[in-house]
Amino acid sequence: MRSKLLVVGTIAHDTIKTPYAKVERILGGSATHIALASSMFNLDCSIISIVGNDFEKKHLDLLREKGINTSGISISNKGKTFHWSGEYFSDMKTRKTIDTQLNVLEEFEPKVVKELSSPDFLVLANLHPEIQISVLNQIKNRPRLIVLDTMNFWIGTKRKSLLQILKKIDILTINELELKLLGRKKSLSDCLKVLTNDLSIRFLIVKRGSGGSLLVTKNSFDWVPSYPFCDVVDPTGAGDSYAGGLFSSLDINKNINRKSIIESMVYASALSSFTIESFGIERLLNLKKKDIVKREKELRKIARV
Asked: Please, which of 8, 78, 93, 117 could form a disulfide with 48 given CB 3.0 to 4.6 Å?
């Protein structure tokens, strides 16, 4: 029997500009990237999200063709799909948000139906913390693993609600900027202590882009490098596809602990390196499992894992 993964997050239209090209209103969003990345293995993945009356049926068909359950995706006739527009600069690391149109996301009140209420893995992707709390309260049985992602906007404006849900999760994934905003300390080391000691985060994964990723617990600190041999076309969604890769790898481990998470972080880094080689989800759609495994083996030699 396949393990169940429930992803609660955004499905979006993205407009992305880089120094080399621009694409408009392509399929994106945290839930989209996570689900497609997790579908590379044998997870039974379902999405809870909302889209507008401008969302094309072909996109839902595409998700279904990848074996993703879309029954939890609401289609609203009251407006358009969430739209994000951003620009990357010459280093392909620095990003500026040009426009964010929440649209139907403003009315999003996710309902977890019975068939989706007992997942083995629950991903609370980047959303309003009160929405994340609402979803967690609707889950029938405690999942094997609960992972949460957030961003600077929620840390700054909804800190109280965010701190409330952080007490109930297993893994928090954030970047360095978000880490410092949440930790409220000058040094990276002191911020890590705040999260693992004061906020009692069991496993903290800090995403550092080309600088790899960190796994931090109360008593340990590990680093996994990123895959260094790829050409960056579009970094959007890399962190979300990383998360999807993490779950699909953890699913094959009987125990979830520091060792198995590090092993899965290597796989996740290998998978997410493909995402940045094309705009949006394009690379994920034609990616073969053998390609990921090959890159994972190369990365293990580099990381000495």
From this structure: 8
Q: What percent of the chain has pLDDT over 70?
A: 100
DSSP for 34-68?
A: HHHHHTTTT-EEEEEEEE-TT--HHHHHHHHHTT-
Which residues span the domain enclosing 253? 4-303
Convert 259-286 to b/e letters by CB count within 10 Å (16 or more is b): eebbbbbbbbbbbbbbbbebbbbbbbee
Spell 199-214 as b/e; 16+ CB within 10 A means b. Answer: bebebbbbbbbbebbb
Q: What is the pTM of this model?
A: 0.94
Burial 92-127 (b: 16+ CB within 10 A, else e): beeeeeeeebebbbeebebebeeebeebbbbbbbbb
Return all residues near 193 (Cβ < 8 A) that are at least 6 apart.
Answer: 183, 185
Model confidence pLDDT, tens digit, residues 122-159? 999 999 999 999 999 999 999 999 999 998 889 999 99
Asked if pLDDT for residue 205 goes beyond 80, the answer is: yes
Calpha distance 49→60 (Å, rounded): 12
DSSP 155-176: HHHSHHHHHHHHTT-SEEEEEH
Measured between alpha carbons, how far is 6 from 239 in angstroms, rounded to an integer?
17
How many CB atoms lie under 10 A from the CB of residue 82?
Answer: 25
CATH code (residue 104):
3.40.1190.20
Please compute the mean of the pLDDT values over residues 114-119 and round it to a whole number: 96
Q: Please tell me the distance from the alpha carbon of residue 210 to that of residue 286, in angstroms, as a whole number.
A: 23
Q: Are 84 and 109 in contact (CB under 8 A)?
A: no
Tell me how many domains the chain contains. 1
pLDDT at 305: 63
